[in-house]
Amino acid sequence: MNDIRTQEMNLNFGPQHPSTHGVYRGVFTMQGEYVTKCVNHIGYLHRGIEKLAESRTYTQFIPYNGRLDYVSGMLNEEAYVRAVEKLMGISDQIPERAEYIRVIMVELQRIASHLVFYSSMALDMAGFTPWTYGFRERDTILDLFEMAAGSRMMPNYMRFGGVAADLNEEFMPALRKLLDIMPKCMEEYHGILTGNEIFQARTKGVAPLSREKALIYGISGPSARASGIDYDLRRDEPYGIYDRFKFNVPVRQTGDTFDRYIVRMDEMAESVKILEQAYRELPEGPVLAKVPKIIKPPAGEVYHRIEHSKGHLGFHIVSDGTAKPYRLRICSPCFVNVAVFEEMAVGLHLQDAVVAFASLDIVLGEIDR
Amino acid sequence: MVLFLVWVDMFRQWLVGIGIPALPAEILIKTILVLIVIIFVLTNLIVLVWLERKFAAFYADRVGPNRLGPAGFLQFPVDIVKMLGKEDIIPGNVDRPVFKIASICAFLTAIMGWAVIPLGKGMILEDLNVGLLYFIAIGSTGTIAFVMAGFASNNKYALLGGMRTAAQMISYEIPLAFSLLGIVMITGSLSLTEIVDAQKNVWFVFPQILAFFAYFVCSIAETNRGPFDLAEGEQELVAGYFVEYSGIRYALFMVAEYTHLVAVSAIAAVVFLGGWNAPFGLTFIPGFIWMMLKIYLMIFLFMWVRWTFVRVKVEHLMHIGWKFLIPLTLFNIMITGIGVYVYRMIAG
Amino acid sequence: MYGQGLLKGLSISIRHFFKKKVTEMYPEQKPNLPKRSRGWFELTPDKCTACGLCVNACPNGIISIESYKDENNKRKLVQYRMLMESCIFCGFCVEACPQDALYNTQAFEQTVFFREDLNRILYKAEPQSVQAERSEA
Q: Is residue A187 included in any domain, yes or no?
């Protein structure tokens, strides 16, 4: 056996692959079927959004936010709009109805984003049927967005001081119908995938991420909560009216792929709870505060972050008193989260590497901006 | 059906009557029967691909192909026409002879297994008295075609797929053979027609339920389907061992896979579900129709399992094959042996 | 028992096998889009005063207007052009219009064969009437 020569091979987990969530390239060095080294290559989707922001006014930049993390349009817009409102100093003048509508839209978007995670994770393991079940509910949510905002994926709905337009009369009955069927659908998702012994055997104990390592890398969002870091910006640094809602924050201890999956499924159930409370308490009133037509914030800088479905999305805006921002920096959570994959993939089988990558839940639009 | 043998006899007598000597007449008849089997298999293929796509859609709240032909039935023939018209791309540094004949080998080994499958009483190409052994042996030779395809394509993904397939198919042949051993012990013969005749009173699926379950799982692994399709795992190894194939060579691999699927379903129907015997004594429906119904029942079960479950990991595949199915089938053999001995003692 | 989750999965999928399917048969069955859905744009030229607010509101600057002042010093529209190949369908132009002259329809099947056809001219005044109005001044 001593004269059999083995050689490590380089495999491109390439930009063209059915299982990278976008145009991501990972160069694996493999010994047989086990990964010994992984190098991330990103930047294939760079569009220069931050530079583009310097030639648009603050209001004109709102549609571009929907293109960052393209499966969660409303969440990106909320982060940007709240950052500029903090800079302008009108964070407390937003009408009540607008705040409640923002919460409804954002929690619906969180459910939609986690449904994409669920469907893509099932698809990466050749579960074609759970994939379509997840996208069925996401389609209902996108129809709700079309009723309120006019567009399914790039809603362009949030404005400084409130939201663009009030909800029309067909929105609330449709939302009620969705909230009624969600518990049954969650049971179906758990029945066909979570309880499946093959799925559990493939995800339990795979690629664990310890709490210390998650803190060193700066992971945020559901991936961090699966490793034991009990931090949720909605509860610990509440913005808007999040301090009025009662919801739990699911936290798990091991940090393996199964925990990252379960945290997101539990977060979907918690979002449904928040939606029920917001649906009941929605008051009447105006939806847009009195803001000037041309937004000219005072010179200064601001950093504001929200609990995005992938982690902490932050906007660092430097303004020089004119109508266009001087510098706009987007601190994206997926950019930080994907860095841990280089360490996570070492020693994994190729199949486990694909599933671990899916469980980090990254979207390339946010990494490359 | 004995009617079929009567027709073949009439045709043979007519041939001898017009002056062809006996031996060439036999050869001519056998050639025509082989052609009929191949045409039957290819017809089944068209129905099967349509069924697969419609089932995949129905499990997922979708409708599936419904534009071409009634309920989308002509979708697959049109796809074959499209594939025939594609350019035959052979990548640069492949091993050319091996690359070219790999897909033909796959189809060849799949169709050779059809020589012993009875589709009705007397409708069998060659009633070997070691029919079951022949089928298992031919099934093992199918492995080489996939290894050829994986090795000859100058591609790392294909190499991984080919190696995985070799390991998988070899691991699951032992439980496959063992699960059929219980049947052989009960009937005392390897000939498929005698196995069907022995099921006149009770089908073998009831006393041999463990063997049926083991055979079901092994045949999913043998045909590279369902939760065990690691070799062609699209999500990790973009189409695995046939990533470099296009056009008609790719279609041949698909044809081979579905032919093998119908063959193992037919063996399951013959060995476990009673072959052409009618249940509850409904003998006015001919045995051929019952056989087709049982084959399609097995295919429905295969497709149900494929579209519900996710793919297993390679280590678990090996664990299931070696550590779970072999003890299960050995246990079944032990129980069957005890049962046969007790039955012989009781029956005198 | 070990295989319980597997059997539950099988029962869920066989239930969906027999239920009604959610596919919409396009193009026989066109989707019923809500009123706010942002499709392509149309202009009511009588209401338009050529104020140019939509031109300033567009992030990409795709709208261009030609106008002239008639004898009462009122602005009149001559040509309204939108370069749809750069449009991001944000709807700011519709929101900015004070007279509600520009509105969006729900039309989304607007593929064309040539790139030039994308640059739509939503309104072009007849040259004779413009000349007539100018000569009356």
A: yes
From chain C, pick out residues whose CB is under 8 angstroms from the CB of B61.
16, 19, 21-23
Q: In the block, which residue shows the tokens 């937003």? A: A94
For residue range A234-253, what is the model confidence (pLDDT) as tens digits? Answer: 888 888 888 888 888 999 98
Sequence-ordered alpha helix ranges (H) in B272-325? 287-308, 314-318
Q: Is residue B257 part of a domain?
A: yes
- Give the separation between CA A139 and CA A152, rounded to whole angstroms: 9
- Of A128-137, A195-204, A211-220, B161-170, the poorest mean pLDDT is in B161-170
**Per the domain annotation, does B107 fall within a domain?**
yes
Tell me which residue range forms the domain holding B165. 76-346
Which residues, including other chains, have CB under 8 Å from residue B265's CB and lie 6 or more apart? B219, B295, B296, B298, B299, B302
Is there a domain that residue B141 lies in? yes
Name the nearest CA neighbour of A138 among A169, A115, A122.
A115
CATH of the domain at A278: 1.10.645.10
Question: Could you report the per-residue pLDDT of B192-229, keeping only the tens digit for each?
Answer: 888 888 888 888 888 888 899 999 999 998 888 888 88
- Cα–Cα dist B250/B348, whole Å: 58
Domain count, chain B: 1
Q: Which residues of A touch C2 (CB under 8 A)?
A: 197
> Interface of chain A against chain B, CB under 8 Å?
9, 11, 17-19, 33, 122-133, 136, 192-193, 196, 198-199, 201-202, 349-352, 354
* Torsion-angle region of A216 (φ positive above 0: left; ψ -120 to 50: alpha; else: beta): alpha
Q: What is the largest CA-CA distance in chain C?
A: 94
Three-state DSSP class for residue C123: strand
CB contact under 8 A, A351 and B313: yes
Q: What is the pTM of this model?
A: 0.88
Q: Is B258 a residue whose pLDDT tops 70?
A: yes
Instruction: Classify residue A24 as left (phi > 0), alpha (psi -120 to 50) or beta.
Output: beta
pLDDT in tens, B31-63: 888 888 889 888 888 888 888 888 888 888 888
In a domain, A349, yes or no: yes
Please tell me the distance in Å from A74's CA to the nearest CA on chain C: 14
Task: Given CATH 3.40.50.150, say whether it is the number of domain C34-136.
Answer: no
Q: Please classify residue A269 by burial: count the beta carbons closer than 10 Å to its beta carbon, then call 0-12 exposed, 13-18 middle and 19+ buried.
A: middle
In a domain, A3, yes or no: no
Query: Does residue B26 sit within a domain?
Result: no
What is the domain extent for residue A297? 9-368
Q: What is the pLDDT of residue B235?
A: 52
Window 14-43 of C, Cβ < 8 Å to B: 14, 16-17, 19, 21-23, 25
Q: What is the CA radius of gyration of chain A?
A: 21
Q: Is the residue at A1 inside a domain?
A: no
- Supply the pLDDT for residue C137: 41
**Number of compact structural domains in chain A:** 1
